[in-house]
Design goal:
flat, about 475 residues, mainly alpha, 25 helices, single chain
Amino acid sequence: MLPVIAMKPTACILLIALVLHLPGAIGCGQEPSPSPSPDAAIQALPDERTKDPFPKDYPIFDPEPISDWNMSGEESRFVGLLAANRELIWQLEDYDSGQVAREFDLRMEQETDIHLKLVYAWIAAKRSSERGKVFILSCRKLTDYEPVRSTLSALAHLPGDTNAPEWVIDEMIASLLDDRPVTKSDDPYRGRGGPYTISELADEHEAISHGLGSIKCRRAVPALIELAEKTDGGRGPVWALGEIGDPRAVPVLMKFLRARTEHGEFDPFRGELVEALGKLKVTEAVPILLEETPLYGDTIKALGRIGDARAIPALRAIVALKGAGPRDREVMNQPQYDPRRYAEAVFALDRLEPGAWIPSLIGVLEDQLFSEHCRWDAVNHLIGSGDQRAIGPLVETIKTDPKILVVKVAIHALSCFPREESVTGLIECFDVDFTKKTNGKVFHNFPPEKFMQNIARSLQRLTGQDFGPDKERWQRWWDAQEHKVP
């Protein structure tokens, strides 16, 4: 699944596949484990016995950063170097962790370019190298623009999916509250009357707030609240507070909502604020959100997440009018059919009235007037419903929908419906010409054989059998089974 503003969170957490779980790492809110002794600075991962010795002739890294297909071009040099050396970094996972750490400790000490040096330190630190950690911490004392950005990028890329070492969390939090002015910036004043601070770079450019939110770090909540206050509800800290889900954030988020509602003008930060309130299920926000005229997509989604029945009449009205209303906040007084508003209202009502909106969900899935992301959302709602009426439309989606994102999730969805129609439909889908499915940004390279493998995996989940992507074998077994799901 599927991965963040000068820099988007998805771009900042650029190479999510590169993020390994650190040995000895802890989740936020857990008690820290004892610090390793200096003699045990480089620890082995639990599965080290299955890994190869690190080769002596491992290639030298490319010293020139690049901007990859899913990047904005405004990332730090550190992120550009990760992109330039992605394959080499991925391959490191095959080798003994301690040996990799020692090799990149050595490369770090020999390297003169600070950005590449940070990449080497990051690789080593992810494998519990004390030297890598010390170098990254030493770089946190710097104030020059480019080294600061690369250092913050290294920190942002250190946590795993759900955890991080204590020292990484400490430095991420400290960077968000670091008001030292940044020096040697190409754009020192940005038209805002003053230089960047390290706090601003950490939040706006390197998505440190986003990283803390992604690992649901409750220890960061006080700092995120402080940063939210300082930035008047900036995107990063508000999004992170919603993602963490700690009720301590509710008072400050409600304060921002009331202030923005009273202000009455278009607010580019409102989307993250409303999303956070929805994730926190703040029922106190419902009357204020319902005052919005018309209700926009982010507000509709939040009302669905909060789950308060007071929203049902307004949501039903949107569905009845096929989403009619201004297409976005900049186009006022121009009512028109808005597929996104309609779809979000259907999704919200599905949360509030489970089972009552299956035909409408299927309608969104089948109509390519809706975006691929709306159709993807429709599939996920159908999975959650467990309603067997979804099976036929899901099979047809695999056969006819042109978008990889939608087809891939539909193949998975059928494995959640253990019925004869699901197995029969999946076997039929081996004949689909997947070369005609179009690439999107999420699945930049998804060849036809991967679809076949996914179909086989879904069939395996449904039947307990494993015949790989071989239609004839599946069909023979299915016929012998008399089309009965085990």
